[in-house]
């Protein structure tokens, strides 16, 4: 058994987790900074970095206590090394390297986006995952459609050409005066609205696997300005339905084209109720597996970092301690 301590500090969550053999989550501690950044309508890098610095030690300590793990039980220390806010990343990387040196165990730097691909697989304890999978990685900063062909093997099928889906949620919520972050607020409000009330074009629906969500934000703003009496819940429901239709339509098309064994959701927007329900419906209708991370594993967490490190250790071995943080780190896609 290999016990890995994972650390995640790429943006506005300070997280640590202890995971055995890439699947068994013994602890997962996440300290969110949402309240610190809410007044600014988005993440402030300097505030985020200082918060990570203050929280990293108690969060790691809590993860070890909850897991019932002593220092000597940890075989590997892993941390997000990119992409993300460079100041935030450096806090986690420095902490992980320090612990690895003190405990005399390997250190592994993990790509944050790659880790999200594994988040949904953490709940598959007793099942052997079948590949390929179509993975829909949807967050505030990225929207990508990926062919997950095996451990460490990924092929990019499509990506957003402008705003990410999560970014569109935040911008629409800000315009409607709903607060930050926008995704959970719109999700709750949409359950009370009519998803057909506001006519919104499904941009690039049948145009390859790329996405565009900038226009829908503008369309929502223009409609509300022209119809000031429209119910906010109807706007939220219509907007959410539009985004969900585009995401799931392209994911389904890709799954059929590559004969995927299943569709996997990843990233913060994977917590969205409509997206999860539609993905489940599609998979049931097409007779394929649905891999949906628990809502706790949709947002940034360290369990997915530790899980990914277990697979990376087997294929690539430990990372060089001289390696730093890369705010623009990308997944190494197959050609």
Task: Name its key features.
335 residues; alpha/beta; Nucleotidyltransferase, domain 5; 2 domains; five-stranded mixed β-sheet; 11 helices; 10 strands
Topology:
Layout (H helix, E strand, L loop, with lengths): L2 E6 L4 E8 L3 E9 L1 H4 L7 H23 L8 E7 L3 H18 L3 E5 H8 L13 E6 L4 E8 L2 E7 L5 H11 L6 H9 L23 H13 L5 H26 L4 E5 L6 H14 L2 E3 L3 H4 L4 H14 L19
Parallel strand pairs: 1-4, 4-5, 6-9, 9-10
Antiparallel strand pairs: 1-2, 2-3, 6-7, 7-8
| Order of adjacent strands in the largest pleated sheet | 3-2-1-4-5
Question: Share of helix among residues?
Answer: 40-55%
Structural class: alpha/beta
CATH architecture verdict of the largest domain: 2-Layer Sandwich
Radius of gyration: 20 Å
**Largest sheet descriptor:** 5 strands, mixed
Give the overall shape: globular
Mean pLDDT: 92
Order of helices and strands: EEEHHEHEHEEEHHHHEHEHH
- CATH topology category name of the largest domain: Nucleotidyltransferase, domain 5
How much of the sequence is in beta strands?
15-25%
CATH class of the largest domain: Alpha Beta
Q: Total domains, how many?
A: 2
In whole angstroms, the N-to-C terminal distance is: 34 Å
Continuous helix count: 11
CATH fourth-tier homologous superfamily of the largest domain: ATPase, nucleotide binding domain
Strands, total number: 10
* Regions with little confidence, pLDDT below 50 for 5+ residues: none
Can you walk through the features of this model?
The protein is 43% helix and 19% strand. With 335 residues, it is of the alpha/beta class. The chain folds into 2 domains: 3-118 and 297-316, Nucleotidyltransferase, domain 5; 131-296, 2-Layer Sandwich (Nucleotidyltransferase, domain 5). Strand 4 (76-82), helix 3 (86-103) and strand 5 form a beta-alpha-beta unit. The relative contact order is 0.19. The mean pLDDT is 92.
């Amino acid at each position: 058994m290999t016990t890995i301590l994972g650390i995640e500090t790429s943006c506005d969550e300070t997280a640590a987790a202890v995971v055995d053999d890439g699947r068994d989550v013994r602890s997962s501690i996440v300290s969110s900074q949402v309240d610190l950044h809410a007044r600014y309508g988005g993440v402030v890098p300097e505030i985020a970095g200082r918060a990570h610095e203050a929280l990293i030690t108690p969060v790691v300590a809590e993860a070890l206590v909850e897991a019932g793990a002593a220092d000597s039980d940890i075989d590997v220390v892993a941390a997000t090394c990119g992409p993300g806010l460079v100041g935030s990343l450096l806090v986690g990387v420095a902490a992980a390297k320090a612990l690895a040196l003190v405990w005399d165990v390997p250190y592994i730097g993990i790509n944050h986006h790659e880790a999200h691909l594994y988040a949904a697989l953490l709940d598959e304890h007793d099942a052997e995952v079948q590949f390929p999978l179509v993975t829909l990685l949807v967050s505030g900063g990225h929207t990508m459609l990926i062919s997950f062909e095996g451990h460490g093997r990924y092929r990019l099928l499509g990506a957003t050409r402008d705003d990410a889906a999560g970014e569109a949620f935040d911008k629409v919520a800000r315009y409607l005066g709903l607060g930050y972050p926008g995704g959970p607020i719109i999700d709750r409000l949409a359950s009370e609205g009519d998803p057909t009330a506001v006519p919104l074009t499904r941009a690039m629906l049948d145009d390859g696997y790329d996405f565009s969500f900038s226009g829908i934000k503008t369309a929502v703003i223009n409609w509300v300005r022209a119809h000031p009496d429209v119910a906010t819940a109807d706007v939220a429901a219509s907007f959410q339905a539009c985004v969900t239709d585009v995401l799931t339509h392209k994911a389904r098309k890709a799954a059929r084209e590559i004969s995927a064994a299943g569709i996997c959701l990843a990233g913060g927007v994977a917590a969205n109720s409509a997206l999860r329900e539609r993905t489940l419906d599609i998979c049931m209708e097409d007779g394929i597996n649905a891999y949906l991370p628990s809502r706790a594993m949709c947002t940034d967490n360290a369990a997915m970092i530790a899980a990914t490190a277990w697979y990376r250790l087997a294929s690539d071995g430990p990372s060089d301690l001289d390696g730093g943080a890369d705010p623009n780190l990308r997944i190494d896609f197959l050609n």
